Amino acid sequence: MSAGRSVAPPPVLRTPGHVPVAQVVRGGLVEGVHHGSVVVLAADGTVVYQLGDAEAAFYPRSALKPLQAVGLLRAGLPPLDDPALALVAASHSGEERHLATARRILRDGGLTEDDLRNVPDLPYGTAEREAWLARGLGPDRLAQNCSGKHAAMLATARARGWRLDTYLDPEHPLQRQLALAVEELTGQGIAQVTVDGCGAPLFAVSLLGLTRAAARLATAAPDTAAGRVAHAMRHHPEMVSGRDRDVAHLVRAVPGLLAKDGFEGVQIAALPDGRAVGVKIADGADRARMPVTAAALARCGIDPEVLAPFATRPVLGGGSTVGAVQPVAPLRDDHLLPRSPAA
After folding, report:
1. At 197, is the pLDDT very low, low, confident or very high (cuts 50, 70, 90)?
2. How many CA atoms are closer than 13 Å to the CA of 140, on its beta-carbon side?
3. Residues 6+ apart with CB under 8 A from 182
4. pLDDT tens-digit readout, 34-62
5. Integer Cα distance of 291 and 2 in angstroms
6. For a Cys-Cys bond, which of 15, 197, 225, 236 suits 86, CB 3.0-4.6 Å?
7. What average pLDDT does this structure show over 277-291?
8. Under DSSP, is residue 318 helix (H, G, I), strand (E, B) or coil?
9. What dihedral angle (degrees, nearest 10) is formed by the CA atoms of 188, 67, 193, 246?
10. What is the average pLDDT across 288-302?
11. Half-sphere exposure of 215 (CA within 13 A, CB side)
């Protein structure tokens, strides 16, 4: 544990009490409802807004990667430049720069693509996947969106003299170090361990714990492992996601923002002063993730005009916009916190 921070007991394992957080409106009629949970933190870490159940255990999916990146640095990850460190925390789209950087992490560590144990997959980005298939290529470990994290795991294991073939075992010393980092940053014990889609261990925490971890990264001193990860992610958001991804656009729109998405409708975002939001869409619908996140960030005092491009998703009919996916009224309309500059 760093900084002597105490760790609370693990969150409760239960079915989360999600509530409506977004509506699908078509032609003025509510056609569908997305349930989920939202938590908003003030700069001092207090909860200033909550919908649903932020205390139940859940799987953060790829939103956990920034925490794992911190753990890798603490465990002895060899020095990386900022773009490469951003890729370690990434769910990348499979752009050539992503693949080249993952190859470089492996090469500098004396490793090859054959050492990777993540699940082969097609590139995550739509354009990148289509181009990949047009070249006649199939699923590939390097193209899979978690390859940066896996390359860094291998590089750390090699640097520490740990076994490479079992680096994904939850009992491997590397994974034990990452679990300690997750507990320290979230401030709570891990409720359960399973296997993520890429094959790496996945730790269950609470949405509140995950959001507090995002705030701790965002406020970390520059010379700490957490501060280094936050700096890399802020300055290279296209390495954390991709040139066409909404998370990269959001980070560019809100100066100083740290943000990471995760499969199954997870999103965290935090500002340099510690204001932070966490979102979980219960059915995993990606279309609801960003509108709900934008509404939560508005409650942090971010100018709604800055957030307007992210506040809704269009609903189409006959090729034209006939409605929108938008946050529910309680999240959208209640009194906001006093506005302040985005940074």
Report:
1. very high
2. 17
3. 64, 67, 68, 71, 190, 203, 205, 213
4. 999 999 999 999 999 999 999 999 999 99
5. 35
6. 236
7. 97
8. coil
9. 120
10. 97
11. 24
Q: Under 8 Å CB-to-CB from 329, ≥6 apart: which residues?
A: none
Q: Tokens at residue 169, please? A: 């075992």
What is the per-residue pLDDT for 330? 87
The answer to whether 45 and 215 have CB atoms below 8 angstroms apart is yes
Checking DSSP bridges between strand 192-195 and strand 276-281, what pairing results, if any?
unpaired
Nearest to 177 by CA among 105, 63, 91, 73: 73
Q: From CA 249, how far away is CA 241, in angstroms rounded?
A: 10
Tokens 């932070």 label which residue?
276
Q: Which of 53, 22, 48 is nearest to 35 (CA)?
A: 22
**Tokens 């499979």 sit at which residue?**
94
Burial of 322 (0-12, 13-18, 19+ CB in 10 A): middle
The string of pLDDT tens digits covering residues 237-276 is 999 999 999 999 999 999 999 999 999 999 999 999 999 9
Contact criterion met (CB below 8 Å) for 56 and 17? yes
The radius of gyration computed from the CA coordinates of the chain, to the nearest angstrom, equals 19
Which amino acid, residue 201? P
Q: What percent of the chain has pLDDT over 90?
A: 94
- pLDDT score of 342 more than 70: no
Which strand (E) or helix (H) includes residue 97? helix 96-108
Q: 50 has which bridge partners?
A: 39
